[in-house]
């Protein structure tokens, strides 16, 4: 669904059953009819720090030790995020994908005070949503990790999507 100023809107359903809307800039990864998020053709590697200037969060990917090793990350709420969300925030990944195929979320919905700014996560093995088949990430796989945030202040929500390829 599209709204004014080229924002794409997606529904986010929280553990408590409430549904909220999250907006993402136009040109971001898009959702197909199967629920998978299709990444753009040219991708950067999932490594180092990913952040938007003035953004509410940044993601720091850690170097994999080699084949068969987890891709790990730390998700930090920035000062701007703490100011925006208020004293608490819920983070989740609703629709992740590997090579354009929807996978079950690699990230548990987490509720925490914004002062606890580090949310850790990892991905190695995944399960495809439609078929239930399992797989293991490998070098060059294309990942889409869309984090959603709901602040403790009414209406303070947003999303941040990282689209990248798995490093060696």
Structural description of this entry:
There is one protein chain. This protein has 168 residues and is mainly β. It has one helix spanning 79-85; strands at 2-3, 7-13, 19-24, 30-31, 37-38, 44-45, 48-51, 57-62, 71-77, 88-93, 96-98, 101-103, 110-113, 118-123, 125-127, 134-136, 142-151, 157-165. The protein has one domain (2-165). Strands 6, 10, 11, 12, 13, 17 and 18 form a seven-stranded mixed sheet that branches. It has a four-stranded antiparallel sheet with strand order 7-8-9-14. Strands 1-2-3 form a three-stranded antiparallel sheet, with no helix packed on it. It is globular. It starts with a strand and ends with a strand. It comes from Actinoallomurus vinaceus. Keywords: Signal. This is Secreted protein. Residues 1-22 form the signal peptide.
């Amino acid at each position: 669904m599209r709204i004014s100023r080229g924002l794409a809107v997606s529904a986010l359903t929280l553990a408590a059953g409430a549904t909220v809307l999250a907006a993402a800039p136009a040109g971001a990864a898009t959702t197909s009819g199967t629920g998978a998020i299709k990444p753009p053709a040219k991708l950067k590697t999932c490594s180092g720090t990913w952040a938007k200037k003035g953004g509410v969060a940044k993601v720091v990917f850690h170097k994999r030790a080699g084949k068969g090793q987890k891709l790990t990350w730390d998700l930090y709420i920035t000062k701007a995020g703490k100011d925006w969300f208020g004293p608490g925030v819920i983070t989740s990944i609703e629709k992740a994908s590997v090579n354009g195929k929807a996978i079950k979320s690699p990230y548990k919905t987490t509720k925490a005070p914004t002062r606890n700014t580090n949310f850790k996560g990892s991905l190695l093995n995944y399960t495809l949503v439609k078929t239930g088949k399992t797989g293991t990430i490998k070098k060059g796989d294309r990942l889409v990790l869309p984090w959603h945030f709901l602040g403790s202040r009414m209406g303070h929500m947003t999303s941040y999507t990282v689209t990248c390829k798995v490093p060696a």
